[in-house]
Amino acid sequence: MSRKSSSNAASKNSSALTTGSSSTTAQGSSILKSSFSPSQFQLRLFASVIQSFDSQQLRIHETTTGRLRCQHETRPGSRITSLDWGFNGRDQKQKKKRKRQDNSEGAVVAYGTSTSDICMFSPAEGKVVGMLSGGHERAVADFKFSPATDYKEGWSVGEDAKLVQWDLSKNKAIRTISIPDGAHVLATPSPNPFQILCASDTPFAYDFVKDGNYQQSRFDSFKNPIHSLFRSGTNEDAQDEFFLAADSDRYVNVFNLQNKRLARTLIAGSGVLAADLYDPSEEVRPILREQLLTVVTEAGMVELFWRPFSQPKQVNGDLKSSKKNLTRKSGASIRLVSSDSKTRSVPIFAASIQGPEVVVASADGGVDFSFQKIRWQDEGNGELLFDGAKDFVKVKSASTLNTATLNGVKDTGKSHLDESKTVVVNGGSQPVTIDISDSEKDEDGWGN
Fold it and tell me: Where is this region: Disordered (predicted)?
């Protein structure tokens, strides 16, 4: 678990892998980056980036049908460097019973470019509807919307060692801060306290006060460039705030923002390619409102860490017990296996929690892929439906079946998942029409 700083971290930035906001090629896929729309948007869309001669293509697929919603080609020579879902500077404060089509019409995918611009692409309109320019002199490394401002603001980091705050209603930069060279990833901004987290191979926190001044905090360095940052909010047990950071090693570190120390380490079975944090909104029933961290590993599996920020309680001052509790393995893991050979695994390259289900993406070869839904949450008590390693059979592509396919699960662990159902659809470039049953319409806990 060594976390020594690396002098060549900046040169490794291009190899950073992230799935929650964006994902780089992994596990047999030619997808350069990808991002599921956030669960609270209720859009069930998947953005992916592929290479196309001298440019790149941004594609938007529907995860329920596999249909290609739209695609967009960048300017020749321009690379897409980051992806994030949000709204284009409009008042999009989430309300109860908001219709999905309302979200779909206003949602955009913001993509950073190697030419220093940030473009707002609308899946509903199939075109770029806004652009942020002039804030960076070199490539944009990452961009994040600020949901706390009703998506009227955003933040970016660039290869020019600048942290930029954007007014999205006016499409202009309103603040620029010099940051350590090599910082290439951001966490979603937090409103209370107003804080920005960014990282190279070292995490940094910027705490802002009312007069516009800020304080910088530095945390322990990692061995490799960090590719994922997630903030916890307030922890109910310790009344402290935490964030987690992951690089390509097996370890996901949880830091305490108050004392600036390592609080806990989550250990995956193999190298972490990507991570995504499910943080349910207040519209979800309280019993289902628990955080879950999904980690895609080099083994092509998805590991689930239930309540990743919860801290262990010391037992009677036992030092040995306390040290043991500073590390934790995943509570459950998901592996896809071939329907032809139940011993042959099918690598997963992206995953996202969408309400009580986890949606995984696996490569069908090249730029084609499939989506598969797996129920993970017990809607009675809100906890994991299974524990240990679990194999799920990858069913045949919907492009050949032309229907949604349901199947059971092969039990390789302690538990048996009687009610598990998966839906696989083709994610390739050809539109596919699939009928979805009424049970598909609303299983996220929001209601209509």
Answer: 1-31, 70-106, 429-448
Contacts 24+ apart (CB under 8 A), 312-320: 312/264, 313/237
Distances (CA, A) of 186 to 144, 154, 202, 258, 294: 7, 11, 12, 19, 18
How would you classify residue 53: left for phi > 0, otherwise alpha for psi between -120 and 50, otherwise beta?
left
Judging by beta carbons within 10 Å of its beta carbon (0-12, 13-18, 19+), is residue 348 exposed, middle or buried? Answer: buried
Q: What is the dihedral of CA 386, 272, 425, 355, to 10 degrees?
A: 50
- Residue 46: name the closest of 61, 32, 57 by CA: 61
Q: Minimal CA–CA distance to 298: which of 264, 274, 280?
A: 274
Q: How many C-alpha atoms does 241 have within 13 Å on its Cβ side?
A: 14
Q: Tokens in use for 276?
A: 């995504």
Long-range contacts of 431-435 (CB under 8 A, 24+ apart): 431/67, 431/68, 432/65, 432/66, 432/67, 432/398, 432/399, 432/402, 433/65, 433/67, 434/64, 434/65, 434/66, 434/398, 434/402, 434/403, 434/404, 435/403, 435/404
- Tokens 């596990």 correspond to what residue? 27
The C-alpha torsion from 143 through 141 and 208 to 265, rounded to 10°, is: 100
Sign of CA dihedral 64, 66, 69, 74: positive
pLDDT digit string, tens, across residues 198-234: 999 999 999 988 777 889 999 999 999 999 999 986 4
Query: Can you read off the two tokens belonging to residue 372?
Result: 């598969």
Task: Report d(CA 217, CA 121) in Å as an integer.
Answer: 34
CATH number attached to the domain at 15-96+104-440: 2.130.10.10
Secondary structure of residue 30 in the 3-state scheme: coil
Question: Which of 123-127, 174-178, 188-192, 260-264 is the least confident region?
Answer: 188-192
Element (H, E) at 103: helix 100-106
3-class DSSP state of 137: coil
Amino acid (1-letter code) at residue 127 = K
Domains of the chain, by residue range, sit at 15-96+104-440
Residues 145/151, Cβ–Cβ less than 8 Å? yes
- Cα–Cα distances in Å, from 258 out to 48, 238, 254, 323, 325? 37, 11, 12, 20, 20
